[in-house]
Specification:
This protein is an alpha/beta fold. It is built from 27 helices and 11 strands. Strands 4-5-6-3-7 form a 5-stranded parallel sheet, with helices on both faces. It is elongated and about 140 Å long.
Length: about 575
């Protein structure tokens, strides 16, 4: 039995040598020690070699030759030593170098401007993937353009952000003014400072998602003393009960809430939550700020701007490569037009620029350009017309259900009241071109006819009703001139609020009356039955058409006799 055990061969799991079973334990110890000695400090640890593929069952001679040189052949290593290179797929020849890790390191991060494309990429490659507005989103306050009143030097909010003392904020502003970008900058800053930053969108998140984030924030604060900043985009989409979820946790500091909204927080955010947050009002970007943002985008794309005296050279444009034969130029006037037309919306401006450039590059049509001293140069030119075509129309900021809806109708009402026919037409056009329902405007004009013109021109009400009926009959865009005629008529008409003021005085009289309201005088009551006549209803009433002279008769209750509601009432 002992001779049979010695003759039985067992394969070593490290070097794959076949040895007698009695010697396998001592041999395995030597193999492991030899592998650990070969692993020198500072060198990349070797990876497992697919020895089973090299030593096939039919190649016994090769296996014996390998037994004689275990260290000089395939690498030997400890079975229990874990190296960083152990992730190589079977069958790859040789050990894995650091090239794979370097490729992973240089893989572009999402959202960065530098990650848009490598420096040698063509313009078409730079425009692929994410929208230009997303790729060029700045990461630091130094690159943030606009909003100087809120984030300028020496402002309170900028000082707090630079010191990483971030309070709970509600960012309120129109689309494309930098709300999400500011939150992105705070996120980058907080991560460097060790603060946890979580982003949710109220358009897709549910109450359970918010509770999960708050639960994690409580654990982070209790176990690691780590703060959590919660950014809620479009926070006005949360209803009142969902917003109440934040109240106790913002109050005790479990989370720092940053909400972004395009709607007026006074109407869309709970008053209790507003009292726990600081409202930051961001305004539309100025034309100068828009030009700076567009110039930054132009530089990142490597497009030259005509009109600045730049000399043409392939290296200066940054767009000459194997995939793009001609350089790309854009007129300076085109950039200025785009800065004006986007109406302070950086997202619209950048995406419009991207669309115009992509269309011209895809078309590939070149234009002779006289930009060098020696003569003309062929290049792809983007003009003002191409930019306008990319935007399709002037970008008008208007929300039929939001803040701008009420702002514009108020401006129209006040312009007609002030007899400014030009301003009246402007605000009317702002509403109609922005997509407002013409019947809504017509209803407001009917109200204006009696409230502000009244008896000074009784035909104004007829004009308003006719305008409403005309809009109802034919609709937009044909009815726009009907509304324009009515608006100009009202702006030019004389104004009188006598009826409006008198009726307001009557309502005030009723609200301030103490005790039960006075009864209707008997002589003014109707008496359709014999019983009512017997009770005195209608007794003593003088039927005015039967008298040739004015009839003296009281029509107000006894308590209000002599009251004149058309006179200014003392408050």
């Amino acid at each position: 039995m002992e001779g049979a055990e010695e003759e039985r061969l067992v394969q070593c799991p490290v070097c794959l040598r076949e040895l007698p079973a009695a010697h396998i334990n001592s041999h395995l110890d030597r193999c492991l020690q030899a592998g650990e000695a070969e692993a020198e400090p500072g060198s990349s640890p070797p990876c497992k070699w697919p020895r089973l593929a090299a030593a096939s069952p039919g190649s016994q001679a090769e296996g014996e030759a390998e037994d004689a040189r275990p260290a000089a052949g395939l690498p030997v290593f400890s079975l229990f030593h874990k190296g960083r290179g152990g992730g190589q797929s079977p069958g790859a020849p040789g050990r894995r170098s650091g090239a794979g890790r370097e490729e992973a390191a240089v893989k572009p991060a999402e959202g960065g401007a530098a990650a848009a494309a490598p420096s040698g990429a063509s313009l078409a490659q730079k425009l692929e993937g994410k929208p230009l507005a997303e790729r060029l989103r700045p990461d630091t306050l130094g690159d943030y353009v606009g909003q100087e009143r809120v984030l300028g030097a020496q402002t309170l909010l900028r000082s707090l952000l630079e010191s990483h003392e971030i309070p709970s904020l509600i960012l309120w502003g129109p689309p494309g003014c930098g709300k999400t970008t500011l939150a992105h900058i705070i996120a980058n800053s907080s991560k460097k400072n060790g603060t946890r930053f979580v982003t949710l969108s109220a358009t897709s998140a549910k109450t359970n998602d918010v509770r999960d984030v708050i639960s994690q924030a409580q654990n982070e604060k209790r176990l690691f003393k780590r703060k959590t900043i919660l950014f809620i985009d479009e926070i006005h989409r949360f209803n009142k009960s969902q917003q109440d979820t934040f109240l106790p946790h913002v109050e005790c500091g479990t989370v720092t809430l940053i909400g972004a909204t395009t709607e007026n927080p006074s109407f869309q955010v709970n008053a209790a939550l507003l009292s726990r947050c600081r409202v930051i009002v961001l305004e539309k970007l100025s034309v100068e700020a828009m030009e700076a943002i567009l110039m930054r985008a132009i530089r990142s794309l490597g497009v030259q701007v005509l009109g600045q005296g730049n000399q043409h050279s392939s290296s200066a444009t940054g767009s000459s490569s194997e995939s793009l034969e001609f350089p790309v130029y854009i007129e300076e006037k085109a950039l200025s037009t785009l800065a004006y037309l986007c109406d302070g919306d950086a997202r619209t401006g950048l995406n419009g620029l991207q669309l115009a450039v992509q269309a011209r590059v895809a078309a590939g049509k070149t234009t002779p350009l006289n930009i060098t001293k020696g003569g003309s140069v062929d290049g792809i030119l983007i003009t003002e017309e191409h930019v306008k075509e990319g935007l399709q129309r002037s970008h008008i900021l208007y929300d039929r259900a939001g803040e701008e809806h009420y702002n514009c109708i108020s401006a129209l009402h006040k312009s007609m009241r002030g007899s400014d026919e030009n301003a009246s037409l402007y605000w009317l056009a702002r509403m109609l071109e922005g997509g407002e329902d013409p019947l809504y405007v017509a209803r407001r004009l009917v109200r204006f006819a009696s409230e502000d013109i009244g008896l000074a021109d009784p035909l104004a009400l007829t004009q308003a009703v006719a305008a409403y009926q005309g809009c109802h009959f034919i609709g937009m865009p044909e009815c726009e001139v009907i509304l324009a005629q009515c608006v100009v008529y009202f702006a030019r008409a004389p104004k009188s609020i006598a009826v409006y003021r008198a009726y307001s005085n009557v309502k005030e009289c009723l609200r301030t009356h103490t005790g039960p309201l006075p009864p209707v005088p008997l002589h003014l009551r109707n008496a359709p039955t014999r019983l009512m006549k017997n009770l005195g209803y209608g007794k003593g009433y003088k039927y005015n058409p039967m008298y040739q002279e004015p009839v003296e008769q009281d029509y107000l209750p006894e308590e209000l006799k002599g009251t004149d509601f058309f006179k200014e009432r003392k408050t």
